[in-house]
Design brief:
This protein is α+β, with helices and mostly antiparallel strands and about 525 residues long. It contains 15 helices and 19 strands. The strands form four sheets. Strands 12, 13, 14, 15, 16, 17, 18 and 19 form an eight-stranded antiparallel β-sheet that branches. The chain has a five-stranded antiparallel β-sheet with strand order 5-6-10-8-9.
């Protein structure tokens, strides 16, 4: 370990790093360059089942403008210093604010937090990396604009740019966030500034309304990648509907996941139900407000009987399908009758509305998410077991009941083998499902941490063997995930990286991509 720094970037001498730090200070001011252990603590905190030292930063820098980002990139090129850009750093369970590999410099963009434009007529916004969902929500509310956001579950402190660039999801009809983005500004590894789509045209006023521009569509290569630093992002916002109706379909048997998905899929594909639908397991619903020790203290993973008892106590189903209807009252009434008919025909599930569940806090939380309202309630899951360990596993499948049943059985078998509880939900798109599993463990317990690491490794490999890939990867396992997607994809990514970033300075190793 270097004496002066917590860590040094791989391949960079202390002398060269001293020079880089000196130039960072000249470019950003002493107060915006951090090398002291206490100031770097927030950038080294992870929840993953690996040692902290593997993700320890060497320093952190905090620019406030595109020009400062460009200057930092130039310094990084001069001294071959790798930099790990973050927006708000709230990517908990996927790596938080810590760099992907030891010794990288964290480029913290949260002070670039301007809402540059919101167009209430075209329903668009242009934001910088540090803008949070809460900030944008407040901006819209204060101006009484008829617009709704789509946000992830722990929304208030997360940011739309970071979530979208990592291809996160929300719960409104605009829940596929990257699909509803339009136009990026990217500082390239050379320091040049690229504006994608119509943004490359001088004096264009269509940057946030037409996605494609001319020639190859480039925005996608800057998501889940290390090909550039995204400094502005255009968003499409949802026009506030004249009416909204939320409901839940509760299922009391774990096997009913098949009926839930089969009932939902045709309604979702026909846009009768237009939003990204959650089918949440009882343990997820209850785990945000209950503690494991109150229901189960034995060895291994929690028993099905204990989960059923908790579901009864908390008045939730074993599966809970949350969806919303948006539009005019007349449209909603027509679609509501179709949905009631589909549920009745399935012979499974109890359908309940906001009128029936007016004081139910669990239902209100889900209903708020479907309206893009801010909350941090999901963080309550970290109290379920305690100890600060969380590792998200997120395989994708077809939206078929048999697929959900198969993934459920696989997940529970593997989790049980390692003493990990099944805390999960399905998020159902038009034709796909994201199976979100939070591998929760006590990070202060060495045995649990080892079990979580082995469990996550087994989940990745066993699911991949059945053709199920994850749609996002935490920083501790991104290399293994990249390997699972094959040599050709890795080779193409590497060729792009070498062409755009020959010095390999931007987030080396992100998504398994190296020079």
């Amino acid at each position: 370990m270097a004496e002066k720094y917590i860590a040094l970037p791989t391949g960079v001498s202390e002398r060269d790093f001293d020079a880089a730090i000196s130039e960072f200070r000249a470019a950003l001011g002493d107060e915006n360059v951090y090398t002291e252990a206490d100031r770097l603590a927030a950038y080294g905190k992870i929840m993953l089942p690996v040692p902290d030292a593997e993700h320890a930063p060497s320093a952190a820098i905090s620019p406030t403008s595109v020009e400062q980002v460009q200057r930092c990139v130039a310094i990084c090129n001069t001294y071959r210093v790798p930099v790990w850009p973050i927006s708000t750093g709230k990517n908990l369970g996927y790596g938080s604010a810590a760099p992907g590999n030891r010794g990288q410099v964290v480029m913290d963009l949260r002070r670039m937090n301007r809402i540059l434009e919101v167009d209430a007529d075209l329903c668009t916004a242009l934001v910088e990396p540090g803008v949070t969902y809460q900030q944008l929500y407040d901006y819209i509310a204060q101006r009484k604009l008829p617009l709704w956001l789509s946000c992830p579950a722990p929304s208030a402190i997360a940011g739309p740019l970071g979530n979208t660039v990592d291809r996160g999801v929300g719960y409104t009809p605009y829940g596929e966030h990257f699909l509803f983005s339009c136009g990026m500004e990217v500082v390239m590894p050379t320091g040049e500034v690229l504006r994608t789509g119509m943004g490359s045209l001088p004096n264009s006023n269509t940057w946030q309304v037409f996605k494609w521009g001319f020639g190859p569509y480039l925005d996608g290569i800057f998501t889940q990648s290390n090909f550039g630093i995204v400094t502005k992002l255009g968003l499409w916002l949802m026009p506030a509907p004249p009416a909204f109706k939320s409901f839940v379909i509760r299922y009391d048997d774990e096997a009913d996941i098949v009926a839930a998905v089969e009932t939902l899929r045709p309604l979702r594909m026909a846009n009768i139900i237009p939003n990204a639908v959650v089918i949440s397991h009882a343990l997820w619903e209850c785990g945000t407000v209950a503690k494991r020790a109150d229901y189960f203290t034995g060895p291994g993973s929690i028993s099905d009987a204990a989960v059923a008892r908790m579901a009864r106590d908390r008045n939730v189903g074993i599966w809970n399908l949350y969806a919303g209807l948006y539009g005019s009252p007349e449209q909603i009434e027509v679609n509501w009758k179709i949905i009631q008919g589909a549920v009745k025909a399935s012979g499974r599930g109890e359908i309940l509305t906001a009128e029936q569940l007016d004081r139910d806090p669990v239902f209100k939380y889900r209903s708020d998410l479907m309206q893009g309202k801010m909350n941090v309630k999901e963080f309550g899951l970290y109290n379920w077991r305690g100890g600060g360990g969380s590792c998200w596993f997120a395989p994708v499948s077809q939206a078929r009941g048999v697929e959900a049943k198969k993934q459920l059985a696989m997940a529970k078998t593997i989790l049980d083998r390692h003493g990990i509880d099944y805390v999960a939900e399905f998020i159902v798109g038009w034709r796909d499902m994201h199976h979100i599993i939070d591998v929760l463990f006590d990070r202060t317990d060495a045995a649990q941490t080892k079990a979580a690491n082995e469990c996550f490794t087994e989940l990745l490999r066993e699911f991949a063997a059945e053709g199920y890939g994850v749609y996002r990867a935490n920083t501790a396992f991104q290399e293994e995930v990249a390997n699972l997607y094959g040599d050709v994809k890795r080779d193409v990514n590497q060729k792009i990286k070498r062409a755009l970033d020959p010095n390999g300075i931007i987030a080396p190793g992100k998504s398994g991509i190296w020079v």
